[in-house]
Every structure is written in C-alpha cells, then in structure tokens.
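Task: encode each sequence below as structure tokens.

Item 1
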Amino acid sequence: MHEVLSGVTSDVNPTAPAPPAGAPRPAIHRRRLLLSTVGGLGALAVPAGVRWWADRVPVRGPRIWSTAAAGGRMVLPAGPRESLYVSGYDGAVRAHDPRTGAVRWSRAVPAADAADSPGGWPLAAGSGTVCVNSATGVRALDAASGQLRWEVPVPDWRDLAAEQGVVVAGDRVLTGYGNALRCHDLATGEVRWSTPANVSPVPLVVGDTVYVPGRTGGLFAFDVQSGVRRWAQEAVGPVDFAPTVHAGTLHAVCNDPATGGSTVHALDAASGRPLWRRAQRRSLGELAVADGTVCLLSGTDLTALDAGTGDTRWTATVPRGLGRGMSSTAAAGGAVYVGTNDDRLFAHDLATGRLHWRDEPDHLAAGTEYAHIALATAGPAVFRAGRTGIQALGTLPAA
C-alpha cells in the first residue's frame, strides 16, 4: 500500500506554494490512479505467483538412479554390499544392484490370480536366501541367482496375502499364516514350531526373540529357536503394523476405528513391562525409529517423540498424497523420510524436523490404483518403490 500511495501523490510538487484557502484541490488523474493501483497490486501478487509456480515446478532430490520397474515391497538386507530385493505388482521378485538399479535376476511367483498380490508379495532376505509368501505357500529362493530352493504349500491359508509378514532370522524363517506364527528351517522348509492361534502375521525378530501382536490384542515374545513364550502383554489393543525395537524398547501402534484415534505403546523389550504410552487424536501408520527418536505420520503431521519418554521433540508438515494408498516413513542416517502415495519423497532432519530436500515426479497426479509405498535405507541413502518405479536417492556409502 505504501507504494500505491506514493505513486498517487508523486504529481504534487512539495516546493510549490500552498493554494489559497478555499481554492479547489489539485485533480488526480483517474487513469494514472488506476494504473498505479494495478501496479501496486501486481507488485504484491508477484511474490505469491512465484511461490505458486515454485510449488508446481518438479523438484529433484539427490537422485542416484531411477528405474521404471515397479515394486510394491522391498528389502535391503546388507546395504549396498548385496542386492536390493523387490516384489512387484506383477507377482515377480527381482534382485537389483543397489548402486545402479540394474536387474540381476527376476523370478515369477505363481498365483491363481494376479489380484492375489495387491502391492507385491511379502518378502524377506538374509543368510543368502530370499523368502517369499504367496497365496499358495512359502518359497525360498537363492539370493544370488533367484533359483528355487524349496517350497512349502500352505493349505490352511485364511488371510489376505497382503497382510502376511515373513522374516529370515539366522537359520530360521518366521511367517504368519493359518491364524498362527510358524517357524521353518531355512535349509529345508520344515516346520520347527508354531504358536497357538490368535497371532497376527506381522512378526519382528531382534536377536533371539520374535515379537508378534495378537490378532485381537496384546503383544507376545517367543524364543526364535524353540518357540517358547517369554512374555505376554495383554494391556495393549490390536496392533496394526509390525512393532519396532530400539535401544531395548518395543514400540507399537494401536489404532481405534471407533474413535479414529490411536495410541503409541512403549514396552520393555526384555520383559514386556509398559514404559509409557502416548494417545493421538488421529490414526497412525507405521512407526520409524532411529537415534532415540520415534517418528509418527498422521495425515499431514509428522511428529517426533523421544523414544525413552514419549515427549514431543518437534512437529513438521508433510503434504498429503494425492493417490490411493498409505504413505510410508523410514528413519536412518540422521534423517526421517516420508514417501507419499503420489511419488513424492521428503527428507527431514531427524533432530530438528527441518526439511533437507524433496523429490517430485515430472507429472504430479492422483493415482487411480492403490499404491503400496516401500522405503528402505542404507546410511545416507534411501530407496523408494511404488507403481511408477524405483528410485535411489541420497549418497551411497562407500563399498
């Protein structure tokens, strides 16, 4: 407004004698006034226009490589020293070179219907083996060649394949199906032990302990080798995702469909004893935990909590994805990453929440098909997989 007023009064000579009392005031040219006003408003509008355009122009993060090979699930068992294993929407499992994105091998996983694999088959890797769950059974593939080692049919499969989890732990493979957790021998596929019913198929293995939620509530810990239950914590509601363990603390999310809220639980990983819990007004997705920090994503809110106390450290805003499906989070190397379901990726400083960089596709549009966003980290590098392809961003660690 100051510029507009200056333009209006600039025709008046400050050194001219004042008009006599009662004399008419100098006329202001209407056209000049209109042009000055428009010019002033234009000056104000330019910064807003620049900001609008900057938001529209695709932003490039520190890309290492990109490939159009779509993938819905992804594991990186040994960082860039081994392979990046991806389960695609077409039912195939592929091994990529983490440094170049080149496909090392591809293996089709048979299924009666391709629709049985929404978002890719669940998979895990370790001990030179890639294990894959499908709607017909559990398969073990050689990690170097993709050749089939063994296959165990699952006749009592009663859950959606998309919900199954699988973990390779030393000489064991743990997976949930038939309303129980099963432990297979990695070399032969033989079932070593299984839990009673009412166990959710999303196990987590840390050391010699496997943690698994109950299907109707509770968290349980079992010995990996024997299957003996170590503890049970019933004071936890139904857990929606696999829990996480960080610095001896087990963290889990319970969403309440009735209220739309959620609760983050922190338990002692050795005993199951409750340490703290944090209620949220909205539902949450998977947790990302690193460097003593628990990161929560709810809608457009990214919140970091102290892993030891549950106190808030910082909050940041992340744009809501325009596509169908859930956004994902991962934390490592001093950063927390958010992959939205419209192919955007955001990297925030884990200590402060400040945005380091963002990466956007050339054409940002709402997707019509459900997208399962997968993230994997290796130090300062992050890998993102979705329907439109796989990208590696950041900096690869030294070989």
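Item 2
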Amino acid sequence: MKPRFALLFIMIMIWMGCTEKPTKTPQTTLDVTQAHYDSLYAAIAPLKNGKKMMPRTTRNGKLVTVGIYDWTSGFFPASLWNLYGLTKKKKWKDRAVEYTEKLDSIQYWEGNHDVGFIMECTYGNALKYTDSPVYDSVIVQTARSLSTRFRPQAGVLQSWDWSKKWDCPVIIDNMMNLELLFHATRISGDSTYYNIAVSHADTTLKNHYREDNSSYHVLDYDTETGKVLQKNTHQGLSDNSAWARGQAWGLYGFTMCYRETGDSRYLEHAQKIADFIQNHPNLPKDKIPYWDYDAPASENTPRDASAAAIAASALYELSTFTENEKAQIHRNFADQIVTSLSSPAYFAALGDNADFLLMHSVGSKPHDVEVDVPLNYADYYFLEALLRKKETDGSEKDKH
C-alpha cells in the first residue's frame, strides 16, 4: 500500500471509530427492569392466545407459564401497570391493557378467594391511570363473586374449598383480597362489600394473631357458630411458626385496611407486625428473611425475596400516615430491604432468571414447590415498592 493511501485508510478508520454510536448499556435498576420485561414480554408473545400465557416462575431454569385461573395470573399484567406508573411510557400501558383484559372472565369466578389478587392488582391498578366504566363494572362484579364466599356466622371469607382437613379454612393471605371489596364500595356506593371486608379484618385481628404479634397461617372456622376449630399452617415450618410471607401479607393487609377505613386499630396492629418483622432475632443482616422466621438460620436456609418485597411495599405506605410516630423507622427499614433486593445478590442480571427481576423466593418449602426461584408476585411487589418510594420521596429519579 502506498504511503498516501495508507494514511488515508488510517484517517478513515479513525473517523469511523469516532462517529460510531456507542452501545447503550442500561445503568439504573429501572433501565435494567425495563430491559428484563421487554425480554419477558417477547418470550411469552407466542403464547398470548393460548391457555397458559402468564409467566409465573421457572423450573430447572426454564420459564413456567400458567393460565388465567391460576392465583398468580394477575401479577404479570400488574407489573406492567407498575412499570407504566414508574416510567409513563405508553408501551407499558398498552401491554398492561393487553394482558389485563385477558382476565375478563375472572370477574364471574366464585370458586376462589384469590380473585382479589387477580383483579385488584390488574383492573384496580388500571383505574389509577384511566377512567373506564367497563373496568369499574369488572371490579364490582368481581366483588359480587367474592362476596359469595362470605360466611356470616363466622364473619369471614372462606379461602379454600379443596381441603378435607378443614371445614372453613381462612388463610392470612386473604387479607389481601379485601382491597377489592373496599374499591367496589367506592365505585358502587354499595356498603355490602365494605362491611364484609371490615368483618373479615376484625375477625382476623381477633383470632389470627399470637401475643408476640406473629400470625398463624390457617384458621379453621365452624360456619354455624363462628368457633375457631384449628390453628395450623400449610406453607410454614410448623403450626406455631411465623411463615415469612404470611407475616408480610398481614402487614400489607392491615396497612391497607387503615387506609380504607381510618380505623386506628388497624394502624396500631400494622405497626406491631412491622416491629415483629424488623426486630426478629432471626432476621438476616440484609433484611431479607428466611422462608420462615423460625427456620434454623444457616447459609443453606432458603431466603424469601417475595416476603421482603411485600413487606417493603407495605412499609412505604405505612410510613405515610401522619398518625404513625414510627414513620421514619418504617421508611428506613423499607429502604434497607429495597437496597438489598436491588443488589446483585437478589436482582438478576439481564438474560438470567428467565428475565424475572428477583431471585431467591420461596413458594412452599414444606411441599418442595418453587423453592429458591423467581416468582411473579415478588417482582410485582418489588416494583410497587419502587413506585411507592418514588411517590413518597418526591423524586423523579431511580435512586437504586
């Protein structure tokens, strides 16, 4: 090559190197989160008209999807709503609407108490961002369906129908379904739903909790007398242990009940649950609990990121109540949890974890089901915690 042509070649190569656009690398938790959910959305696109289109978890590292009648079916579209809330990007709203409306028939399902999880997290969240008489009617019809599970003599909503062990089992998880009933009363003006929710919350407050403010998992009621027949667990270590996610469900549920009713008993009880969780001697330093607070602590004991995410979201809301003299303590605790969940120890790298956000959750350890895996509800409550943090600190930036 002649010298002048060699010099020209070198100059061209330098110019191309200077003008080539750099590859954009996600930097913040929110950037990486969106990249994860872009990939997850693409992965399920071929399934969107099938029976099992909703991503739930992984098995042997592979994505597991479920149909709309699975109790977790609402958490993927609900996460899309949270992403819209965090970013205000139209694509997340469009995707959220797409998958939310696949759940339409659930409004008529009377066979499961979890319709509150499914429909309030989806249609309920949708109504935060759009006015829709159609969505309003879905919430009210779902509340009507859920209300068929109310057992007036016991004052509770029955959880399961499938067990031969119990007559009328009520799980602490059921506190989460009350939000839909409160919402339905606000829409319709019909106090029936509100009254059922209050009855269930009051009965749970009376019977489900121990002196140390930890919760049993399952109570069995006599539907004629209202007598408590048994106090058991289904997913915890033992009947008398404190199953981690159950404690988080209770914290979230009573915090929400205070928001909806203004009843100070619920606020006081939520504070007590928060104290139990935060001050438990078996809580690891990173604030992500073992799957049960009474499980032997060791490096091999599974953690439950889902329980941590639920608690963090609840704690952010709990910290907003001016009547709460422990507000800053609750907020600091929530910040510690979110910081840990946002770290590489729990927050998956792009391309890993089947593109779910959080690693290391536990579905049911006693049944050896979904142990140390991602779970769609862990992602949902983590995103809700980020959204609530953003709303309560007034920041428009992702600080994680």
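Check on item 2: The chain has 13 helices and nine strands. Confidence is low (pLDDT under 50) at residues 2-23, 395-400.
End of task.
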